[in-house]
Each structure stands twice: as structure tokens, then as C-alpha cells.
Amino acid sequence: MQEKTDVVDEIPMRWLERGEGTPVVFVHGIPTSAELWRHVLPRVRNGRCLAWEMPGYGASIPAGNDRDISVARQADYLSAWLDHLDIERAVLVGHDLGGGVVQIFAAQHPDRAAGMVLTNAIGYDSWPIPSVQAIQRTAPALRWFPDVVMYPQFVAMLRRGHDNARIAGESIGLHWRHYATHGAARSMARQASALAVQDTLAVVDRLPQLDLPSRVIWGASDVFQKVEYGERFARDLGTTLQRIEGGRHFTPEDHPEPIATAVDELTG
């Protein structure tokens, strides 16, 4: 798996890449990074896999400074990055906020979406979740807090979102390092402040009209994005919901195999 970076429209962008064939773009959520997909990419047999990192997240936290990093704007950044790589069409895979990004991108550019996989994604009115709303409310003061204040909340969120304790520990260390490097309190306040439910509500009516091959995979015990939203996505996208019984929120880390299989079904 290769780590790549380039400047796109004056924005430093980072991604992980592996494989060849049909482009498959993976988009992470909050509070993670491109490494969210580290266990999925090696399991995909068919496709050029590109795990794109949203500006303002992960190692790309500095790229979000003084920029709009809302979910809707991230869809624009994604489009510019694909143009930069001369990728006309791609299968889109999104988790959490990344699911919102790929929905918006597909709704705005239906001719560029070759397929879509959603796993425990935001959508409709399912977000921001209460813990993120709390960060939004305290954001002006939070920017001045020491990073150590944020660490217990970060750990609690990731542990609640994993059903595999070992992977949860791995995930905490992997994703926290970016916040520790770039300022956790300030970065989380900036990320949370950019989130608005109107971004996904704006494309709700277009989801049933997408008419593209889709898969919806859901950790059925997710306390952040409830499985009922997965069922709604499946209905709107004309597919069936694949439930991961006992699975929680961070499915790409705890349950990479069914996601990789879904990608192979769309690229094979």
C-alpha cells in the first residue's frame, strides 16, 4: 500500500493506494483518517483502491485551516482530486461522514459514479450525533483547551464504536496521533463546527434516482448511526441491507471482509 500526496487547487491532498483496474475511492469519517481502510484495501481483489483523506482530517488536518471542511464542500474537493488524477468514473465507498460525501458527489455527478457502497454512513437527519453536537456547542472555548482534555472523550467514542477490543486499541493509537500532532482540541472543534445536517438533507430526494449498483453494509449494534438508517438507504438505493450482527460503528476496521467483498461484486 502506497502513501501518496499532491497539491490540488492549492490544497495538499493525501491518499493511500493499492491495486490496479477499476478505480475504487474510499472516504473515511470523523474522527478517523485514510488509515481507516487499512484492513479493507488488501482484501479487495479487483480494482485500483484509493483511500482519500479529507482536508482537515488525519495527516491532512493542516489543509483544513481557514477552509470550508463541511461534508458538502468535501464532495467538491473529492471531485477536484479525481479530476487531478484523470479518473472519470469510480466506485465510491463511504463510512460515517465519508458516506455523506459520496452520496453528495454521486447526486451531483451521477455519470461519474460507477457504484456505491455505504457502511454505517451518515445520511438523512441521522447526524450530527450528540457527542459531536456537544463539541459544536463548546467549540469557541474548546479551541483553547489542552489536548489532554480531549483524549478521554476520543477514547470513549472509539471504544463505543468498536466490537473488537483489540482493533479498538489499534484504532485509538493510529488516529489519535494525528490529533496529537496537530492540536486535538482545536482540530476537533474545527471539524465539528463544519458539520450541518442540511448537507445530506439536500440530496435525499435524489438518492432513489441514482440508479447505480449499490451495497449497504451495517453494523447492526451501532449506537451512533442506527441500523434503521441502513434499512432506509437500502430501500432508496434499490438493494438489500447486509447486517453485521453485533457489529458496531467502525465496520471498516472490525469487519473489513464483507466490505471488500461488496467492492469486488461491483468491480468484478
From TrEMBL:
It holds the Pfam family Abhydrolase_1. Residues 23-256 form the AB hydrolase-1 domain. Residues 247-257 have a biased composition (Basic and acidic residues). Residues 247-268 are annotated as: Disordered. GO terms for molecular function: catalytic activity. This is Pimeloyl-ACP methyl ester carboxylesterase.
